[in-house]
Amino acid sequence: MSKIGFIGLGIMGRPMAGHLMAAGHELVTYVKGGSLNNELAEKGMVALDSPKAVAEQAEIIITMVPDTPDVEEVLLGEQGVIEGLKPGTLVIDMSSIAPIPTQAIAKRITDAGGEFLDAPVSGGEGGAINAALTIMVGGPEASFQRALPVLEVMGKTITLIGDHGAGQICKVANQIVVALTIQATAEGLLFASKAGADVSKVREALLGGLAQSKILDVHGERMINRTFDPGFRIRLHQKDLNLALESARTLDLSLPGTANAQQLFQGCAANGGADWDHAGLVRALEELANHEIGS
Amino acid sequence: MSKIGFIGLGIMGRPMAGHLMAAGHELVTYVKGGSLNNELAEKGMVALDSPKAVAEQAEIIITMVPDTPDVEEVLLGEQGVIEGLKPGTLVIDMSSIAPIPTQAIAKRITDAGGEFLDAPVSGGEGGAINAALTIMVGGPEASFQRALPVLEVMGKTITLIGDHGAGQICKVANQIVVALTIQATAEGLLFASKAGADVSKVREALLGGLAQSKILDVHGERMINRTFDPGFRIRLHQKDLNLALESARTLDLSLPGTANAQQLFQGCAANGGADWDHAGLVRALEELANHEIGS
Predict the structure, then answer these.
(1) In chain A, which residues have pLDDT < 50?
(2) Where, by residue number, is the active site (chains A, B) (predicted)?
């Protein structure tokens, strides 16, 4: 069992940290401008004064924070992890952040004598609670093997994609594919509905052929049953597609479908839907068609 | 066993008709401006002078022709099926044509004393050869039950979607979903490749989560292995998306993703790719990015 520093106790981080404690690991944390959640404190988690203080105690440090600047602040900022880093400490960033800055962060941690992995997840709150996250990892093979027993406590499909940044690249690719497959499902079912067909039967028939996808199955059903409680929130998918489109600009890459899907998410947000499940993308198309699926 | 009129002996129609003869049905046909394929003649198929002559002999008539005007000509034109139609003859149009004209064709056949089903297929040449087509049917339940033993000789997943036209609506929805899922796969893998990740590993990781689709599996592999022999030709998918976009205009429906995918197929066609497999959509994006997946 390891002494693990876990920074970032939000919707995802809380259950993930809970699994690690349940597995017998000793956890310390730093809570920015707040106090430690009672439930986690009762399970034995200890809050320290700074990420630096966390680094001085932990063998493994996991970060699970909202965005690129948050990771940079916790790891590289004043009183940050890098100031207290012991030789050989393994830093695992499980946040979903930009791939290119990730490579720079990895270099800073490695140069300071630590090891670094980017290990973003997919599977949402449900995946975190059920320890069934998909984890996409970038970094050296040896660090991956060292992290594996810890990652296996939180996730199911855990893949080493490549070197530093490759985990974040894979996560962005995942969010691109998911967004466009949601739009695929939305346009297909909306067409069928407005043309007068029974969308439930259309969905079933399509699941039997080349159009099959997990999204057509799960999100297609949400579109038909009108259940748009998250799930995965549109505002978070907007953040991820923003990463995709910013990275694409840096990479000289044109992603017309991704840009299109992002505009539809923005159309949802403009109609009060930033906290709908991302299957709610269909509602932007429904607005344009003046028609709701199944009506 | 029935006497079946089968009109339209192209890439799809030939193996489909072959399966029907192998199952013991007696087949007659009309070949427009040509002569009957030797192989089919040797198996016992007889060519008659007109669709009208076919109708005078057959209990069931199947059409498998390229587009809406072709179906209209064969069924409703001069010397067409409708002129020779016997009371109670079942007409099954297995072509992929426009849903709204299909309803008008169904009315003409029904008013003339026949029964009508629209029963377009997906699964391509491979599905036709292996008798594994997905068949999406529109029309009355009783006609569907009557057709089922014949359809089961050619296909596997056979679904009654709804009334006349619903089969064609479902087929169009299928082609919308397939095209956009191809674009989803293309943008995700191209992003990963241009950002420097191993696309094979990205594809594998994504297949384990919410991004999973049959297209990511099959067409994703084609994009990585650079195998763009059809399969399903871009020119045929262009025809289907044209149907989708024309119908959408009639229906007051906005399909921004479908329009986008169609433009990318046109970009492929402009570069000599009309006969590439539809996974070749990725090449239009690769042109824009000046980067080929895996390079």
Answers:
(1) none
(2) 171
